[in-house]
């Protein structure tokens, strides 16, 4: 029969681990954490910490054994992702480059903006888009079928599922953005990736609005989608160029443009489901175009289990299992505009790890935003961060001020 742990003992063990780590005694910290896990084997957060301490002690094999179950069977998505991150770091340390790259790509599939994953992948799989795409090169499909219609000019970007090229459509005599699915996702065993890839294009093609990227063609044989090339880059790139935040006129224009495009999408019965700065293209500063509808769905329609999208821009209710909805899209807009106003995200990965996903705007932040951008924008950010039932009516009430 298992003896129940004595009251207070789990807290004492964690306090011992804290003291040992602060003093640099990682061996003692590992013992305390191991004892805690003996009494609380379901504590995955401490299991993750235990693995990190083992890595610090150089016990990579033991750490890998602790992390492996978290990667495949963990219930907490944030803990699972952090386990994958630590395993990727172990792979690199042991020279397993392909395994490391695959794990970094898993993280990017959840959060395409993850800076550590992008940096490591750039080193593990460097691109040579400035030298190895000949101006006469044409698209070759994963099945080896050459199509003479598109002439690749240069690579524009690379994500977890596809690479985007600037290409010349020889039939239309027009420059296009050509999105090509990664070959490893094109096999019959990855049918879900293939389905989402083309669903993204078909949703965008049906919307037809200046604030939604135009789709010119879908080539299923070549696993490619030809779309409007928008030369202004993404809002993410724009924010990197302005680390302190956008000017008030540009911020107001961005808010008007983004909310206007989203209103059209919602009126068509579509939920975007993954709004974030890297999915927003710019015709000009402040003129936003929605892209990447890969997680979009019908308003009120059936959704897969759990929330899809990027946790940094989730609404609070999505952390409790709520599906994407017009209200969660509006919350994401508020998080994007907060970042554009302040130069920093509304929440960080560390906040998610601590379970601090709900962050009300503090009085100090309110004062800073109002002083920098005026009361109208402050009210907009407040109502977009409100409870779901009040987001839509709230933003309509202050929309005229923009």
Topology:
Elements: H1 9-22, H2 26-39, H3 44-56, H4 60-73, H5 77-93, H6 97-110, H7 115-124, E1 138-140, E2 146-158, E3 162-169, E4 174-181, H8 191-207, E5 215-219, E6 224-228, H9 235-241, H10 248-267, E7 270-271, E8 280-284, E9 287-290, E10 297-298, H11 326-342, H12 349-354, H13 363-373, H14 375-384, H15 388-399
Antiparallel strand pairs: 1-2, 2-3, 3-4, 4-6, 5-6, 7-10, 8-9
Helix pairs in contact: 1-2, 2-3, 3-4, 3-5, 4-5, 5-6, 6-7, 10-11, 11-14, 11-15, 13-14, 14-15
Please characterize this protein's 3D structure.
This protein is of the alpha+beta class and 402 residues long. The protein folds into three domains: 9-124, Tetratricopeptide repeat domain (Serine Threonine Protein Phosphatase 5, Tetratricopeptide repeat, Alpha Horseshoe), CATH 1.25.40; 138-228, Phosphorylase Kinase, domain 1 (2-Layer Sandwich); 235-399, Transferase(Phosphotransferase) domain 1 (Transferase(Phosphotransferase), domain 1, Orthogonal Bundle). It is built from 15 helices and ten strands. The chain has helices spanning 9-22, 26-39, 44-56, 60-73, 77-93, 97-110, 115-124, 191-207, 235-241, 248-267, 326-342, 349-354, 363-373, 375-384, 388-399, and strands at 138-140, 146-158, 162-169, 174-181, 215-219, 224-228, 270-271, 280-284, 287-290, 297-298. The strands form three sheets. The protein has a six-stranded antiparallel β-sheet with strand order 1-2-3-4-6-5, covered by helices on one side. A two-stranded antiparallel sheet has the order 7-10. A two-stranded antiparallel sheet has the order 8-9. Helix 2 packs antiparallel against helix 3, helix 4 runs antiparallel to helix 5 (77-93) and helix 11 (326-342) packs across helix 14. It starts with 8 loop residues before the first helix and ends with a helix.
